[in-house]
Design brief:
Length: 365
């Protein structure tokens, strides 16, 4: 008998048209993982923020045809992963890959219904956030758990917590950097003039102080990519740094910020190769923030050249890495969490969201 296995890819989501910009922002800022206030003041603040930011956000999405490309990007990844899994499954299993977005459609409620209607025997929950954070992975997992319980989805499920140092993930990034370096060096640029600048979405410092492992995992990912990177013959080292983008509001955010890093690089007359280390799909933070806004900032800051490595998308090595994660999750009785193998003093991933998933089936309430 063929086993039906559903794989659910989690991603952030984005507005699918101009009219969706404000409700998308409201969904984002009403999440307790984003704004940690009691429900009533949080919802009021989310209403206010979404109203104030909607016009500026609409201008950003206007660069992209008025909507986010993230759903199409994620569905392409889902199709590539489904093809890969079924190719390697033989007659043992039938895989179907679903996409669940956190702040815009299709959301967990819709996808839980689809998975239940398909009558999946097993489910693998796989975030497209390589580095764990309470604001991304945990939030998505909690929404899924709530809906699975509400709808009585009882299929056995397996969880991938994070994969900041997954070999295929690191190697796929390294290949993108190598292609970019090859073009630059072929044009006469020397390695001493190049800074590899890894950029990740920032978080308020208070989130990290509360024990969130995101920053630590981002920095491990960057160091891992550099270990995988095949430098040109005769080159023993490369200049690289980690920075964070998308800072908003008056809170103190983790750093250094990308504008600080670009200003320092520009002052030395160097150029940059930007690597979106925490984004595996193209969306507004890569296509507008990095490609338009920070490119313009870099030019004014004196940065010699500005090259951006594409997000991983459907790159073969990355899809194969996701396939391997699915296989390992299916074989694991507990959430697949490389961070759990680290020394006890390190921040942990297995926080609130992962505890319910240690049971084989959801408790129906």
């Amino acid at each position: 008998m063929t086993i039906r296995r559903a794989v659910v890819l989690f991603n952030l989501g984005g507005p699918d048209g101009p009219a969706a910009v404000r409700p998308f922002l409201y969904n984002l800022f009403s999440d307790a993982a984003i704004i940690s206030l009691p429900k009533i003041p949080r919802l009021c603040l989310a209403w206010l923020i979404s109203k104030r930011r909607a016009r500026e956000a609409a201008k950003i999405y206007a660069h992209l045809g008025g909507k986010s490309p993230l759903l199409e990007e994620t569905r392409a990844q889902a199709h590539a992963l489904e093809t890969y899994l079924n190719k390697h499954a033989g007659d043992e299993a039938d895989y179907r890959v679903f996409v669940s977005m956190r702040y815009w459609h299709p959301r967990a409620r819709e996808i839980v219904t689809l998975v239940k209607d398909w009558q999946a025997d097993e489910i693998v929950l796989l975030p497209l956030y390589p580095q764990y954070s309470t604001t991304t992975t945990q939030s998505s997992m909690l929404e899924w758990e709530k809906e699975a319980r509400r709808q009585g989805l009882e299929a056995r499920r397996h969880v991938v917590c994070c994969y900041p140092e997954e070999r295929g993930f690191l190697r796929a990034h390294a290949e993108g950097i190598e292609a970019c370096l090859s073009r630059l060096l072929g044009g006469g640029t020397g390695m001493k003039d190049i800074v590899i600048l890894f950029s990740a979405h920032g978080l308020p410092e208070r989130v990290i102080r509360a024990g969130d492992p995101y920053q630590q995992q981002v920095e491990r990912s960057c160091a891992g990519v550099m270990r995988e990177l095949r430098l040109p013959p005769g080159t023993t080292r490369a200049d690289w740094r980690v920075c964070y983008q998308s800072r908003v509001g008056p809170l103190s955010w983790i750093g250094p910020s990308i504008d600080e890093a670009l200003a320092q690089i520009g002052a030395k007359g160097q150029g940059v190769v930007i690597v979106p280390i925490a984004f595996v799909s193209e969306h507004s933070e890569t296509l507008v923030e990095l490609d338009v806004e920070y490119r313009a900032f870099a030019g004014k800051a004196g940065v010699k050249f500005y090259e951006r490595v594409p997000a991983l998308g459907i790159r073969g090595g990355f899809i194969a890495a996701l396939g391997d994660l699915v296989a390992r999750a299916l074989a694991s009785p507990a959430p697949l969490c490389p961070q759990e193998e680290q020394p006890s003093g390190d921040p942990r991933c297995s926080m609130l969201a992962l505890a319910p998933f240690k049971q084989e089936k959801a408790r129906v309430v």
